DNA sequence: TTGAAAGCGTTACCAA
DNA sequence: TTGGTAACGCTTTCAA
C-alpha cells in the first residue's frame, strides 16, 4: 500500500462517551420513559407536541442512536436472520438468489446478517451463531448437524433452514440435490448416443459438496445403459486442462459433463487446441447456464439450474418464525433441465 | 417449490425458555459469578477443579450459550467489524479479497458481519449500522458522507474505513481509483496506434461507480494524443452486443476498452460474428484478468487489477481500533497494469 | 474460593 | 400526559 501524507489530526472528539437515551432525557428535561415513547412513536401513550419536539431536537443535537443490543435484550427477541458468509467465492446464480432473499426479508422487516465464521466448523459454528440470538438461521451447504440445530433452537432461534443436499433433523430443509444436475446431463449425453462419458471433478477444495452429487447423478443416469462413467479430476488452470486434453484420445471418451460452464469453457478450449472436434468427437456439457456458454463456439450445451425464489424462502422463514410450533417443512427446490446448444 | 409430506410434529420442545447463566448456576449449585468465572477462564480468580467440572457439566446439560448482546452491553464494547453486504453481484476478484479480509480479521479475533442494508442509503444506512455499535465499519463504494462517518464515530465506532473513489472526512480511506484502470487501457491502446477508441459503459445499474471513472481514465490517457473517445452504452445481452456490432463500421472505431473481461467477451464475440477482425480491424481490451480472457481466441488483452491484501486491511483496522487517536490514514490501493495478449 | 450486588441501555407497567 | 421503577443477561468489584 502506498502511504499518502495524512491530514493533520482533527481536534480530537475528546473520546466523548456515546450518548444514551438518559442523556437525551436530561437535555430535553423529561424522563427516559418519555424519550422512549417519543422516539418509538408508541401509540398507547399520548405525548404533547412541544415535548415531542424537545425530545427529537435533543436526540438530533446529541447524535443519539439507540443501542440495538440493549433493545433486544430488553425485548427478549430480535428480528435478525443470520446466514454464514460463504467461504468460497460464489457464482452469479447464488449471488442473485441471495440478494433477492435479502431484499424480500428486508421487506418483511427482518435484518439479514452474514456472519463470517472463518475457521469455525459445524456445531462449533452453530454455537457462535447462537450467541447472537438470531430469530432465524439460514445455513447453505452441509456441515450443520442435528446437534447444531438443537443448539440454535434452544438458544431461541424460531426457524433453522438448511439449504443443501439433505435434511437435518429438526430444521426446515430446502433440498438442493445436485445429483439432479448430473443426472440431466447424463440422460442428455446418453440420448445423444454417447457411451463413454467423462465427468470433471474440480480439484479446488470446497466444491466437493456440488461435484460429488453431480458425478453420482451422471452415474445414476448412465447406470442401465451400458455406458461408462470416468471421473476426471481437474484443477482450474490452463496447464491442467492441456494435460487432460493431451491424453484424451487415450481415454477414449466421446462425451463429458464438465461440472459447470466455467470448467466446460476451460476444457473445451483445451480440447479444441489439441485438435479434438467438439461435438463430433466429444460432446461437452456444462452447467449453470451462464452467459459465457452462449458466447462460445460451438455454443455450449448446459444444465440450467433453477433456484428457489428469494421471496418464497423469505415467506417460509416468516411463516416458521410466526408459527414455530408447526413441524419443519421440506421442499425440493433445485430444478435442472438441459439447454441443448451446439456442443453436444 | 414442491411440497414434500412433513414429518409428524415432534413432541413440542415446550417452547421452553432459553437457559441463562443463572440456570447454569442453579443447576451447578453455585452463584452466577462463579459460572462466569469458569466459563470465561478468568485468570484473576482460582476456582476449584470440582466446581469447574460441575459448572461445565451443567452448562452442557442445559445447552447454555452466552448472550452476546448482554455481554457486550455490559462490557461497553464489542469486536464486531461491520460491512454492508454488497447489493450487486460481485466478481471473483472482490470475493477473494473479501474472504481474505474476513480470515485475517478473524485471526485478530474480530467478528466480521455483513449487514444487509436493503434499500437504505447513505447516512440513513449509517444510522442503522450504528445501532449495532460495531467497533469498526468498512464501507465499499461511495454513498457514505461525512455525516454518516460522524454518526458512526459518535456511536462508538473506533474505525471507519471507506473503500472507494474518494476520501470522506473523518474516515480512513483505501482509495480505489478506477480511473487508473481506464487510463492503463487508454495508454496501451494509444501505444498500439489506435486513434478512435470506444469505451463500453454497462447499462446495468450499480456499475456506474466503476464504469464512470474507467471511462474518464481512458479520456485522460487519450487527451493529448488527438485520439477520440466514444462512449458505448451496452447491456449485458447478446442482442445488445449484436446491435452494437452491426453499426461498428459506421462508428469507425479501431480500438475499444470493454469495461471488463466479461463485457469484452460479449463484445468480441459479437464483433467476430459481424465479420470485424480482432485485433486487426479493432483492438479489444478487457479488465480484471479473469481466466476466461486467456481462453478466448484471440487471447484477450486485459487490465490486471491489484487489490490490497486482506491482511493489510485487517492490520489497518486493528491499528485504528487500538489507537483511535491517530489521524485517518489514506492509502492508494488499486494497482492497474495491462496484460498484453493477442486481442490488441 | 465463593457470593451479593451494581450497572450496562432499553422498554413497559403502573402511578401520579 | 408524564415519570418512577423493574427487568432483560451478563460481568466485575467488593466482601465474606
TrEMBL record, chains A, B:
Q: Would the keyword Transcription turn up in this protein's UniProt record?
A: yes
Taxonomic superkingdom: Bacteria
Q: A GO molecular-function term, please? A: DNA-binding transcription factor activity
- Swiss-Prot/TrEMBL keywords: DNA-binding, Transcription, Transcription regulation
| Ranges of residues in domain HTH lacI-type | 19-75
Q: Which InterPro entries match?
A: HTH_LacI, LacI/GalR-like_sensor, Lambda_DNA-bd_dom_sf, Peripla_BP_I
Protein name as catalogued: LacI family DNA-binding transcriptional regulator
Amino acid at each position: 500500500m502506498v502511504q499518502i501524507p495524512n491530514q493533520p489530526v482533527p481536534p480530537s472528539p475528546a473520546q466523548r462517551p456515546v450518548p444514551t437515551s438518559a442523556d437525551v432525557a436530561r437535555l430535553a428535561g423529561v424522563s427516559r420513559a418519555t424519550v422512549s415513547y417519543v422516539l418509538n412513536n408508541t401509540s398507547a401513550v399520548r405525548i404533547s407536541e412541544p415535548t415531542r419536539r424537545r425530545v427529537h431536537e435533543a436526540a438530533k443535537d446529541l447524535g443519539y442512536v439507540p443501542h440495538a443490543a440493549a433493545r433486544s435484550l430488553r425485548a427478549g427477541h430480535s428480528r435478525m436472520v443470520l446466514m454464514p458468509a460463504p467461504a468460497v467465492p460464489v457464482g452469479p446464480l447464488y449471488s442473485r438468489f441471495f440478494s433477492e432473499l435479502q431484499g424480500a426479508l428486508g421487506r418483511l422487516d427482518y435484518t439479514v446478517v452474514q456472519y463470517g465464521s472463518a475457521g469455525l466448523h459445524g456445531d462449533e459454528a452453530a454455537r457462535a451463531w447462537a450467541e447472537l440470538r438470531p430469530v432465524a438461521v439460514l445455513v447453505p451447504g452441509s456441515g450443520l448437524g442435528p446437534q447444531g440445530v438443537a443448539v440454535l433452537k434452544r438458544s431461541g432461534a424460531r426457524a433453522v433452514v438448511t439449504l443443501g443436499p439433505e435434511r437435518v433433523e429438526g430444521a426446515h430443509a430446502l433440498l438442493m440435490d445436485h445429483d439432479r444436475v448430473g443426472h440431466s446431463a447424463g440422460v442428455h449425453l446418453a440420448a445423444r448416443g454417447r457411451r463413454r462419458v467423462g465427468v470433471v471433478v474440480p480439484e479446488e477444495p470446497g466444491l466437493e459438496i456440488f461435484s460429488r452429487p453431480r458425478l453420482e447423478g451422471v452415474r445414476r443416469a448412465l447406470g442401465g445403459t451400458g455406458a461408462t462413467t470416468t471421473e476426471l479430476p481437474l484443477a482450474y488452470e490452463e496447464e491442467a486442462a492441456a494435460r487432460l486434453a493431451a491424453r484424451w484420445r487415450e481415454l477414449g471418451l466421446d462425451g463429458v459433463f464438465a461440472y459447470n460452464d466455467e470448467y466446460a469453457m476451460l476444457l473445451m478450449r483445451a480440447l479444441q487446441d489439441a485438435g479434438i472436434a467438439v461435438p463430433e468427437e466429444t460432446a461437452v456439457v456444462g452447467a449453470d447456464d451462464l452467459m459465457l456458454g452462449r458466447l462460445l463456439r460451438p455454443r455450449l450445451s448446459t444444465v440450467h439450474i433453477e433456484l428457489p425464489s428469494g421471496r418464497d424462502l423469505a415467506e417460509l422463514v416468516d411463516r416458521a418464525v410466526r408459527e414455530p410450533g408447526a413441524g419443519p417443512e421440506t421442499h425440493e427446490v433445485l430444478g435442472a433441465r438441459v439447454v441443448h446448444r451446439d456442443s453436444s
